[in-house]
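Quick one: sequence plus zinc ion SMILES, need structure tokens.
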Amino acid sequence: MKHMKSCVNCRSTRLYYAFSVNDYRLIECADCDYLGMYPQPTDAALADIYGESYALLSEDESGSEHAGKLKRATAEHYLGLIERY
Ligand SMILES: [Zn+2]
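Reply:
Sure thing.
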């Protein structure tokens, strides 16, 4: 059986397998009776959150529209400079 490196609560390495739920193992700490999941679900949850936000950024139409306006404004600015001569 795989052990957690240490208890997230008290840093103890005396961790024991309690039981498993789906893909997660529940680990019990012998020193503080902390009951935790291994692997910890927070990492996967964070990965999902970051994955979704990256997808939103790449598919953000208002963002690309804003970039287009900036390019147009810059082009008009340079055209204005040229017309002065
Ligand atoms: Zn502990």
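The mean pLDDT is 72. The longest strand covers residues 15-21.
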